[in-house]
Design brief:
Elements: E1 3-7, H1 12-23, E2 27-32, E3 38-39, H2 45-58, E4 65-68, H3 79-104, E5 108-112, H4 116-119, H5 125-132, H6 139-143, H7 150-170, E6 181-187, E7 190-191, H8 193-199, H9 204-208, E8 218-219, H10 220-230, E9 242-245, H11 249-254, H12 267-282
Parallel strand pairs: 1-2, 1-4, 2-3, 4-5, 5-6, 6-9, 7-8
Helix pairs in contact: 1-10, 2-3, 3-7, 5-7
Bound molecules: 1,4-dihydronicotinamide adenine dinucleotide (NAI).
């Protein structure tokens, strides 16, 4: 049986994942604001450092996997906190826990992305660049011109940047090279306290108007089953994947946009990547 760190383990999908892992006999080290082994506020650098230290101590330097589910929804005026929790609360934590994950040899990580990364239209590239460039504090200012849409842009932007960060890291020496499988799940609307808050808040109509071809909302337990599979040996060959479990919303909006081949304008980069791979094998 293994040892897994689960952020957001006190509620919703993180909690369902923690319960699912415990049912299988695994040890779970929960990270959250309350009701878990490692109480830490992921919206602040000190809280993230404390979370990393707490997990490393409890797992004695070896983790079989991690589930990064802590997150906040799009709420007006909370873009700064959202940017910290939903992006740095995942990326900084994973970087800090990486040595313990590498120690396991075949560790697996599932980060919580969202279909908001792809179905939120016109997320400014500058916002994604700010996340990826370590300038997260600039996000609220960059989004100020979007007015009532700023919270949704911050949410979608954080998840889009997270997906990019994860796919780039996943294939690198530090992660794939250390045997760590880094993947993400991208849920659509799932019945949790986060969704309930949205349904009773200023953005309720945008949730109610969302096209969900299969109908209704998902359940936290269904997502936990996917996460359990992505932490199991079935995922040994899975690396850098973003798994959409969203009732078909992403396919509805973007059925013809993805998968997409590399266009002629991207050929130089394609060959550079190929060359870098060949050179790395000669080392
Ligand atoms: P939830 O609100 O039920 O659970 C989120 C957990 O994160 C809570 O226990 C909360 O205390 C914790 N958290 C929030 N801020 C924190 C902080 N500063 N420090 C430490 N912990 C903190 O939400 P839910 O729905 O289970 O969300 C889980 C993940 O799934 C989130 O990353 C969310 O963005 C994502 N997601 C949710 C969807 C939904 O419809 N519910 C859809 C797509 C993605």
């Amino acid at each position: 049986m293994g040892t897994y760190a689960v952020s957001g383990a006190a509620s919703g999908m993180g909690r369902a994942c923690a319960e699912r892992l415990r049912r299988d006999g695994h040890e779970v080290i929960g990270i959250d604001l309350r009701d878990v082994a490692v109480i830490a506020d992921l919206s602040a650098p000190g809280g993230r450092a404390a979370a990393i230290a707490g997990v490393l101590e409890l797992c004695a330097g070896r983790l079989d996997g991690a589930v990064m589910a802590a997150g906040v929804g799009p709420e007006p005026g909370r873009e700064a906190v959202l940017a910290q929790v939903n992006f740095l609360g995942v990326t900084e934590l994973l970087v800090g826990l990486r040595p313990a994950l590498a120690a396991a040899g075949t560790a697996k990580v599932v980060a919580f992305c969202s279909n908001a990364a792809t179905i939120t239209p016109a997320i400014p590239p500058a916002v994604v660049r700010a996340f990826l460039g370590g300038r997260v504090e600039q996000v609220p200012e960059l989004l100020a011109p979007f007015g009532i849409y700023a919270p949704s842009m911050a949410y979608g932007g954080a998840k889009l940047a997270l997906a990019r960060w994860l796919r780039r890291a996943a294939v690198s020496k530090d992660w794939a090279g250390a045997g760590i499988r880094l993947n993400a799940i991208a849920p659509g609307p799932i019945r949790t306290p986060l969704l309930d808050a949205q349904l009773s808040g200023a953005l309720a109509q945008s949730v109610l108007d969302l096209p969900v071809p299969i109908g209704g909302y998902g359940e936290a337990g269904q997502i936990a089953e996917w996460v359990a599979l992505m932490l199991s040996p079935a995922a040994d060959f899975m690396c850098g994947a973003i798994v959409f479990v969203d009732g078909g919303t992403d396919a509805y909006f973007r059925g013809s946009d993805w998968p997409a081949t590399t266009p002629p304008s991207g050929l130089a980069r394609w060959f550079a990547r190929q060359q870098a791979w060949l050179e790395s094998r000669q080392l």
